[in-house]
Amino acid sequence: MTEWFHPAITLILGGLLLPLFRGQSLKAMSLILPALVIYQVSQLTPGTYGQLDFAGISLVMFKVDKLALVFGWVFAIMSFIGNLYSLHLEKPGQRVAAFLYMGSAFGVVFAGDWFTLLVSWEVMAFASAYLIFAAQGDPAIRAGFRYLMIHVAGGVLLLGGIVLHGIDSGSYLFGPLQTGPDMSPQGNLAYTLIMVSFMLNAAVPPLNAWLTDAYPEATVTGAVFLSAFTTKTAVYVLIRTYPGAEVLVWFGVMMALYGVVFAVLENDCRRLLGYHIVSQVGYMVAGVGIGTELALNGTASHAFSHILYKGLLFMGAGAVIHMTGRRKLTELGGLYRTMPWTVALYMIGAFAISAFPFFSGFVSKSMVIAAAAGDHSATAALLLTVASSGTFLHTGLKLPYYMFFGKDCGLRPKEPPLNMLLAMGIAAVFCVGIGVFPGYLYDLLPYPVDFEPYTAVHITESLGILMFTLLAFVLFLKYLDPENTISLDTDWLYRRGARLFMWFAHRPVLAWEQMVITLGDGLGLRTVHRLSKESMRADTHMVDAAVNGVARLSLATGGLLRRLQTGIVSHYGLAMVVGLMVMGGFYLLVQGGVL
């Protein structure tokens, strides 16, 4: 039965029922449901389920294969970890949104047709937006609104591409897309629209600013879910639809470098981590573009690892925000004294994202770089390696130094609630376990794995790069001091564009409207008023006069007839005789030719 019972149903229906529970029962259900999903995923076997025809379109709402199972497994694990991390929440609102968000992510992963994917895609956008709005406050509301606008725009592009693809191909089954001179114009346009939509969700520059704009404003627990699902579902659909699209190689390389460069400028701890989401997803996008089996395996494995270590990093930063109320590096420091467990668990995530040997990032990120080098993309491989050193510089050194060590900020917060530490601990176990025993992850991958991460050359090269980065950090530490400033990203363009649009709407357009109204009042209304007065005069002196004249004639005639009605028979006889005489005389005159 679990082979066809969709995990999305468990999460979505379960999430909608959560408001019926209170207290400990609510917390219990928040863990039981994702645990049930883990069991469901463990029982899934490759196949196609939930097929139906609707309006002549074949829908496949549940399709399972090895690639879907890779993402299904890590989404299920992260669903449990995220809900454990948020177990202290008393109100069900955020939990309901998170369950809808997680469930729709499963809907995307197991979608077998474009329309099932589209519906799940849009539910993800709206449910995840609530996790930003729930933080309340003007910055969160504004960021959530911008986030929603961007993702709705992406959904419109996706819908347009799906419709064009269906018209061109006659099929709405979800699968690889093609482009080229042999394709029809609408087929090529569909290819482009869908790619842009997926790239938007993957935060590919210049379509990336929504991520670093919105994620720092989300709730402490909401940001953990956001870090796990939106960009990784985008990576999943890119693997499905655009394997081997070479343009993605260079977009991915640009992402990897873009994220680490902008992280230099950041003072907000979660915004800094957001830029490293952009950077790490860049490795995955590049792997999709390379398109070989090794590259696609690397993309899937790195997505798996990234969800766990990035979730751990956001949980560590969130624990600091939860306990101190501060998130800027210039306002933090010296917290290691009272939050040692948080520091230790955060550093495990930092070592994992930095690809230290025996941590998860080492066995996944290196697969993508090796695929780039093996595919004769030496430049891409070199640039991805450089980006990796930047990741260690900012996430592994700069952020923990200024947040936990560095200048003492004077705060003495306690460790976060036990459920937060347990969630971080589980994620940390996976970060280390995957690094030490990569075979378990490799067995899940969609293609046979012919890659050995632990070679002397690879370990030596990696440690050399990491130690060189550490040396550079020590030497240039004073130049890395965060500043209490706000960095500008590509969101400046659409923020300015939105302001320009609103100015245009409120100034020129409104002025034109007022002018039209004024002219209408000055000319149109006066003309209409004059015509109405003339019409009233004509109505009074002509129409009413005629009606009144007819009425007076009728009244006079009626009075005359009334007087003739005497009721005396002799009068009626005389009238008849006179009438006959008049009629006879008239007849004689006619016969005589007089008339």
Identify the notable features of this structure and list them briefly.
595 residues; mainly alpha; 4 domains; two-stranded antiparallel sheet; 20 helices
Concise account of the structure shown:
It is built from 20 helices and 2 strands. The protein is mainly alpha-helical and 595 residues long. The chain has 4 domains: 1-241, no CATH class; 243-486, no CATH class; 495-564; 571-595.
Description of the molecule:
With 595 residues, the protein is an all-alpha fold. It contains 20 helices and two strands. A hairpin with a 2-residue loop joins strand 1 (47-54) and strand 2 (57-64). It folds into four domains: 1-241, no CATH class; 243-486, no CATH class; 495-564; 571-595. It has helices spanning 7-17, 23-43, 66-85, 93-109, 114-133, 138-169, 185-201, 209-214, 220-241, 247-263, 269-290, 293-324, 340-353, 360-374, 378-404, 418-436, 438-442, 456-475, 491-564, 569-591, and strands at residues 47-54, 57-64. A two-stranded antiparallel sheet has the order 1-2. The mean pLDDT is 88. Helix 12 runs antiparallel to helix 14 (360-374).
